[in-house]
Design a protein that fits this description.
The complex is a heterodimer of chains A (about 350) and B (about 625).
Chain A: E1 15-23, H1 30-36, E2 39-58, E3 61-79, E4 87-96, E5 111-119, E6 122-125, E7 132-135, H2 146-160, H3 163-174, H4 181-190, H5 196-209, H6 211-224, H7 232-242, H8 250-256, H9 262-275, H10 281-287, H11 293-306, H12 317-322, H13 324-336, H14 341-349
Antiparallel strand pairs in A: 2-3, 2-5, 3-4, 5-6, 5-7
Helix pairs in contact in A: 2-3, 3-5, 4-5, 5-6, 5-7, 6-8, 7-9, 8-9, 9-11, 10-11, 11-13
Chain B: H1 2-10, H2 30-48, H3 68-73, H4 77-111, H5 120-146, H6 150-171, H7 173-190, H8 195-199, H9 204-207, H10 218-226, E1 234-236, E2 241-243, E3 260-264, E4 268-270, E5 277-282, E6 289-298, E7 301-304, E8 311-315, E9 320-327, E10 334-344, E11 347-360, E12 365-368, E13 372-373, E14 391-397, E15 403-410, E16 415-416, E17 425-428, E18 432-437, E19 447-454, E20 462-468, E21 470-471, E22 473-477, E23 483-488, E24 495-496, E25 500-511, E26 520-525, E27 530-531, E28 545-548, E29 552-560, E30 578-589, E31 598-608, E32 612-618
Parallel strand pairs in B: 4-11, 13-21
Antiparallel strand pairs in B: 1-2, 3-5, 5-9, 6-8, 6-10, 7-9, 10-11, 12-14, 14-18, 15-17, 15-19, 16-18, 19-20, 22-25, 23-24, 23-25, 25-29, 26-28, 26-30, 27-30, 30-31, 31-32
Helix pairs in contact in B: 1-5, 1-7, 1-10, 2-4, 2-5, 2-6, 4-5, 6-7, 7-10
Classes of the chains: A alpha+beta (about 350), B alpha+beta (about 625).
Chain lengths: ~350, ~625
């Protein structure tokens, strides 16, 4: 029987409740984490040894503090001077309820991609949310250097692993800044998956790797999608869309700006705001009537930035919230005013 | 124009009836001819500068401005060329001596502000300068005559005398009056007849030094001496001053018909910049065309009417915008002469209105190196934050050297020249200054930074200003449906399962100015637990933090088969039994330190058996 011991946090696995602030999966930089880590490896947890376990008071509340050391065996190294087969000590510490960001949990015999930093004579996990990601099997990396080799290993998990492992692997791949052709091809393949979680997560990677292709594929996927939208990947996609600056993606972003999913509308509208292509004027004008107040506000601000308007055409957020109709009507009137036709035409002709 | 007017007015030699017959050289009165040629040279120079001052009767010609005088006088090409060359040689001495005379008068007035007349010493010096100018005119006259044949020279003399006679007859009754008033002082010096002797047309009392114009003020004295020409007005013999010209023009020596042109506008113009002045003509009827001309009298500036024209015609009175006023050097006073010329009936007249302004350095262009943000006192965003910073370098492009005086004129609670404390002014010797955010803007561009730049070696400053905004986190916006899912394992890295639940509430961070913020610290403060389910043993929760990559989740998780009551995965119909709630859950943005940053939302975290809910959301938080 596998004994579950929590490396850190949030109580013993069988009894926990917590309120955490967690980044939307896939949106944190794995590239930066890779750079900041001393060792990046695929490791197997050999043993876990608690070294301290006591109770203390924090204010009026009793908390439980535990520390320990896990011994992990290096299976494959992507960064650092440890050789395959060597053993590393990974220290952990936790308190419950948590007073600091959580650290990942590991169990004996588990396989994980670890991002480790040197701490004295041992190591610590370099990031609470991405520092240790468990997988069901040892992946096999093909070619590439350092982070691209890690990407290759993660792609192997995507191809042969279970669905949960595949999603976790995709989440790590999404956090990278560079994508191999193999990765892009695999994302295109996965974007046609019947598993919406898998497909949407792959599309999030694709939107980041190739915004024009990814957003276009997303339009197609959502046109066919009939699910209830309970996918974390929709939020991931929202973040990727909001960071899109590729003008080739404008057409797809305009289409996505009228999506039934507010997270997609929100992300695509912020993408359109970043690009500020005057040819998006019609799509933006339509969003002046969006049921969501923040979407209407983004439409107003994007038009203001696009047509270099100030004053009431570009209200502050609190001012807009106090009377949204005033500002959307102002823009609607300006866009319909024949006197502004020339300016609209000029800008549309010269983005 | 003290010196020039003094001589022009006081020393005219004869009437129009006598001058045309004057020949060369037998009965030439040298001083008389010096005056006539001095006058003619000045007319030519003014016309060359496209001015029409004092040559009203002549400009009726339809010829172009460059040869108006030559055409009017029917000069031969040889005469025209020689005459204009002589006039151009005379011009520098004319300008210099006139300026010096004016400076003397101004200094005298400043020294004796209570005096009603220029001092004898000053008057004497001015007369000396006038004499020097006559000498200069005489030299050029002589050179002019040498360059022509005797016949051509004699013919030119006659034409010049005709010009001067026209001037006396048609244009300058005030000058005649002034001359009469000064006859005692001047006639003996120059040995010429005075106007009343020649024409018999002036006020005898005044001519005799009568009571009306005795004991003059400096201004009155000046008016007499320049014949009111500086202001385009007419000399009033009863008040001994200059009066505005009346409506309708009028003919000949009718002083009640003189029009005026006045300018109003800024007292300074930036070097290389532009300004707008109003031009108003008065006493001109709607049907009378008025020719306006601009020319530079002093300094190195210029001005133009719309269309970059130096001359334009208008009909009737009314304001006209002069744009494109510019100056080419710093700290140099520029005087432009705006002249209005119009015709009425069988006469024409011109008047001038000086347009004087100082030149300031060109205003620098201020730019800010980055967008300013405020995340709470002492909070610095992480290096991954790329949307701006808590300080910015303001650079004044186009300015170097001298002193730079920077002032925050608006928004002193938002920006400062010191980090963390309010400092609203600073002086630097370089053209850049660092400005710090110390508070959030309420709306875009509500802080103003003003620079007064004084270039090295000058006392003339120019100003520039820059509007600034300090953006700041304002609110959390939730743009996505909450996700309730069944999980197992731990709440740290939960896996799909049915031991408990994870309720995820997505958030993005919106700023005051409508920007969505990425890569900034977020943290929370959680209020005391409030028990809804007595006897439950669900643990408390603690505040957490994260660096937001664009959006983040508030994650309400509960997994615990040994908890009482036990946790469940979300049911098809969500359960309604409440376990605990945490009111006064407060969000901060700008730091990962618990409780630090800008407060953006308060809410209540409610834990149920199979899901969590965020309730009573207030965002933004009223300040």
């Amino acid at each position: 029987m596998k004994s579950l011991l929590i490396l850190p946090l949030c109580l013993i696995a069988s009894s926990a409740s917590c309120a955490e602030i967690i980044p939307v999966p896939g949106t944190q930089s794995v590239t930066n984490l890779f750079r900041a880590s001393d060792i990046v490896c695929i490791c197997i947890v050999q043993s876990i040894s608690p070294t301290h376990d006591d109770a203390a008071l924090r204010g009026n509340e009793q908390i439980r503090r535990r520390t320990g050391t896990a011994v992990v065996r290096v299976q494959e190294v992507f960064k650092g001077d440890s050789a395959a087969g060597s053993l590393l000590n990974v220290d952990y510490g936790s308190e419950s309820p948590a007073g600091q960001p959580s650290s990942p949990s590991l169990a004996e015999s588990e396989i994980a991609v670890l991002f480790l930093k040197k701490s004295g004579s041992s190591y610590v996990v370099a990031d609470p949310s991405m520092g240790a990601t468990r997988f069901s099997q040892i992946p096999f990396a093909e070619g590439g250097e350092e982070i691209l080799r890690l990407q290759s290993a993660l792609l192997a998990i995507v191809k042969v692993g279970d669905q949960a492992s595949a999603v976790r692997a995709l989440t790590l791949i999404e956090g990278m800044d560079e994508f191999s052709q193999e990765a892009k091809s695999e994302m295109l393949e996965l974007s046609r998956s019947n598993d919406a979680d898998l497909a949407l997560t792959a599309l999030a990677v694709l939107v980041k790797a190739d915004p024009a292709e990814g957003s276009s594929r997303l339009v197609s996927f959502l046109n066919e999608y009939t699910g209830n939208g309970q996918h974390i990947a929709l939020q991931t996609l929202s973040v990727e869309l909001m960071h899109t600056v590729d003008p080739r993606a404008v057409s797809a972003l305009e289409s996505l700006s009228s999506s039934k999913f507010i997270s997609i509308r929100f992300g695509s509208m912020l993408g359109l705001r970043s690009i500020r292509d005057p040819r998006s004027t019609v799509a933006l004008a339509q969003r002046l009537d969006d049921p969501d107040n923040d979407i209407r506000f983004i439409a107003v601000m994007t038009l203001a930035e696009m047509y270099r308007k100030s004053g009431d055409f570009a209200p502050s957020s609190p001012a807009f919230d106090s009377n949204p109709r005033r500002y959307t009507d102002l823009w609607r009137g300006w866009l319909l005013d024949p006197a502004n036709k020339a300016e609209l035409n000029i800008l549309n002709a010269n983005p | 124009m003290i010196g020039a007017a003094l001589l022009t007015a006081a020393c005219f030699p004869a009437t129009a009836q006598t001058l045309p017959g004057v020949g060369k050289p037998a009965h030439r009165n040298a001083a008389t001819w010096q005056h006539m040629y001095e006058y003619a040279f000045r007319v030519q120079n003014r016309m060359d500068a496209r001015a029409v001052t004092s040559v009203g009767p002549i400009i009726r010609s339809t010829s172009g401005p460059d040869n108006l005088l030559a055409t009017h006088l029917q000069l031969t090409p040889e005469q025209s060329l020689a005459f204009r060359s002589a006039a151009q040689r005379f011009a520098p001495a004319d300008r210099d001596l006139t300026r010096r005379a004016r400076a003397l008068a101004a200094a005298d007035r400043a020294k004796h502000p209570a005096s009603r007349a220029l001092s004898e010493d000053t008057r004497f010096k001015i007369f000396e300068l006038a004499g020097q100018r006559l000498t200069a005119a005489a030299q050029e006259e002589a050179a002019l005559h040498r360059s022509l044949s005797a016949a051509q020279a004699a013919e030119l003399d006659e034409k010049i005398s005709t010009l001067f006679a026209e001037h006396l007859r048609k244009f300058s009754p005030a000058s005649r009056a002034a001359a009469i008033g000064l006859k005692g002082a001047l006639s003996s010096s120059f040995g010429i007849r005075t106007a009343d002797q020649a024409a018999g047309g002036a006020n005898p009392g005044y001519a005799n030094g009568g009571s009306a114009c005795q004991n003059l003020t400096p201004d009155e004295q000046y008016d007499i001496e320049d014949g009111c020409e500086d202001d385009g007005e007419v000399y009033d013999l009863e008040t001994c001053g200059c009066d505005p010209p009346p409506d309708g023009g009028g003919g000949g020596g009718d002083t009640d018909t003189m029009p005026s042109v006045t300018f109003s506008g800024p007292s300074s113009v930036a070097q290389g910049g532009t300004a707008t002045f109003d031009v108003t003509t008065s006493k001109v009827s709607q049907s009378q065309p008025v020719q306006l001309t601009l020319t530079t009298l002093e300094g190195s500036g210029s001005a133009a009417f719309p269309g970059n024209q130096t001359s334009m015609s208008i009909t009737g009175p009314g304001p006209i915008l002069i744009s494109g006023v510019s100056a080419s050097s710093i700290a140099d006073n520029i005087k432009l002469d705006g002249s209005a010329f119009f015709e009425g009936g069988n006469y024409s007249v011109a008047t001038t209105g000086p347009l004087t302004f100082s030149v300031t350095p060109p205003p620098p262009s201020l730019t800010s190196s980055t967008t300013l943000w405020f995340f709470g006192s002492g909070n610095t965003p992480p290096t991954a934050f790329t949307q701006g910073g808590i300080k910015s370098v303001i650079t004044a492009s186009g300015a170097s050297g001298g002193t730079f005086s920077w002032t925050i004129t608006q928004g002193k609670s938002e920006v400062s020249f010191a980090s963390g404390t309010q400092t609203s002014s600073i002086t630097t010797t370089g053209n850049a200054v660092t400005i710090y955010s110390i508070g959030p803007s309420k709306e875009a561009n509500d802080a103003t930074l003003q620079l007064t730049w004084t270039p090295a070696g000058t006392s003339v400053a120019s100003t520039a200003s820059l509007n600034l905004s300090v953006d700041s986190p304002s609110a959390l916006v939730s743009k996505g449906d909450p996700i309730n899912r069944g999980v197992t394992g731990s709440c740290i890295t939960p896996q799909a399962g049915d031991s408990g639940y994870q309720s995820l509430f997505p958030y993005a961070i919106k700023s005051v100015l409508g920007v969505y913020i990425s890569n900034i610290g977020v943290n929370e403060v959680i209020g005391a637990k409030s028990v809804d389910y007595p006897g439950n043993n669900w643990p408390s929760i603690s505040p957490m933090n994260v660096v937001n990559p664009g959006q983040f989740y508030d994650d309400l998780c509960a997994i615990g088969v040994v908890l009482n009551p036990p946790t469940f995965a979300p049911q098809p119909t969500l359960m309604t039994t409440k376990i605990n709630h945490f009111p006064q859950h407060t969000w901060y943005v700008g730091s990962t330190t618990i409780g630090s940053g800008i407060q953006v939302q308060t809410d209540t975290l409610q834990y149920y058996e199979d899901h969590g809910v965020v309730e009573a959301v207030i965002s933004p938080v009223p300040k």
